[in-house]
Design brief:
about 200 residues, two-stranded antiparallel ribbon, alpha/beta, Ubiquitin-like (UB roll), Helix Hairpins, five-stranded mixed sheet, nucleotide-binding
Amino acid sequence: MKISIVVKIDFQKSDGLVPVIIQDEQTLEVLMLGYMNEEAYLKTEQEGKVTFFSRSKNRLWTKGEESGNFLFVKSISIDCDKDTILIKANPVGPTCHTGSRSCFFTDYNQNFIFKLEAIIKDRYDNPSQESYVNKLRQKGLNKIAQKVGEEGVETVIAALAETDTDFINESSDLIFHLLVLLKEKGFTLEDIAKNLEARHK
């Protein structure tokens, strides 16, 4: 488990409890809010699974201890006042007791591009003969770059002379193949975001 910021958490500000925001590591979707005391935090660190202090049960509660829908910790960050924790986690199954991915009922579609990037990475890490990504990868960098060019041209044509549905479909193909090209070159969406942010400044 990776801890992003090493500081001493101030558990004394709110009677020994601090709020904990859980965020999906892949999609960056906010999944839930809970609370930890120092014991719950140490247990989370040691076991790599999120454990809260349940105010209703008045005891430590590991998320998924009954449902099996654990939250596996990927990173931990502390805010500037040292009294709020942000945990990026890999959720197993839905996080909310209602069966929803998130307790905040967010629109998952807006985050799917990050999930798609993770799927492409998984195809690289665990290649399958049936995988389109794997078949494209086997053809090499030149073919992958060529596909991005082809999809770019088709997107322009669709924008100028075809239906909105065609335009969305071609744009989706373009973004998908660009994600594959980024992976092939060893870059991620985060690298693009950082570059865009630097340009904005």
